[in-house]
Write a structure and sequence with these properties.
single chain, 247 residues, Jelly Rolls, Arc Repressor Mutant, subunit A, 2 domains, four-stranded antiparallel β-sheet, 9 helices, globular, DNA-binding, Crp/Fnr family transcriptional regulator, transcription regulation, WH_DNA-bd_sf
């Protein structure tokens, strides 16, 4: 396995445990799960592109010519509702792949990808990436896992929207993110990613004010705390109990 460091190992062990509890988890750092040589070969195929905060990597309707790997920064993948509201499907962080769906189905983009902060991506032409997958079956299998896991996440989110109240949806989102991006220290979990209240609202289908109120309640209950937009889960047990109340 390539670069990933100690936190990557912690995250992968946590992800395996969470998946056993029924929390869908997508593979996170795609490049780190390749061999070092395969990762170097793949990166060498691409061109480095830089995007300032708020810039579009691609928009819905654009041709799907490239697959992208995020080297630095953060990119959100979202769709616009008929009323023009953003619905965030997921975030991409360092090492993650996006723009992958069009490799399998062809056609244009159906989602938007936008830099949440200054970001550096590697763009690999779709034809080159397909050729790479033909000669690297492990990478092809990993792509299948990425697509499958994202589909599972979106399926659960859809069920949550119609069956759970907003507090439960927020609790489930935090657990899902902790499985992918959390570092466990003892019984507590520190999310390594920053999230604004508006971003959480756009992921669970509510307003920023509602998210602020729900998070304040979780703080008072001793479930979590927040520092610099990063969530610290102080009681995973209590958070899990909240997700089961409507189950």
């Amino acid at each position: 396995m390539g670069a990933g460091g100690g936190d990557s190992g912690v995250n992968q062990r946590m992800a395996a445990g969470a998946e056993g509890q029924g929390v869908p988890v997508a593979p996170s750092n795609f490049l780190a799960q390749l061999s070092e040589q395969d990762a170097r070969d793949l990166v060498a195929m691409g061109s480095v592109q830089h995007f300032p905060k708020g810039a579009a990597v691609f928009r819905a309707g654009d041709p799907g010519r490239n697959v992208y790997f995020l080297r630095k920064g953060r990119v959100k993948i979202y769709q616009l509702s008929p009323l023009g509201r953003e619905v965030i499907l997921w975030f991409c962080f360092s090492g993650e792949i996006f723009g992958l769906a069009e490799v399998a189905r062809g056609g244009g983009r159906v989602v938007d990808a936008e830099a949440c902060e200054a970001s550096e991506v590697i763009a690999v032409a779709q034809d080159q990436f397909k050729s790479f997958l033909r000669s690297h079956p492990d990478a092809a299998l990993l792509c299948m896992q990425v697509l499958s896991s994202r589909l599972r996440i979106l399926g659960e989110v859809l069920v949550n929207l119609v069956s759970d109240d907003v507090n439960t949806r927020i609790a489930k989102l935090i657990l899902r993110l902790s499985a992918r991006y959390g570092t466990r220290i003892g019984k507590e979990i520190y999310l390594t990613i920053p999230l604004t209240h508006q971003e959480i609202a756009d992921m669970v289908g509510t307003t920023r004010q509602t998210v602020t109120s729900a998070l304040s309640q979780l703080k008072r209950q001793g479930v979590l705390s927040i520092d610099s937009h990063r969530i610290h889960i102080e009681s995973e047990e209590l958070l899990n109990e909240l997700t089961l109340k409507q189950g």
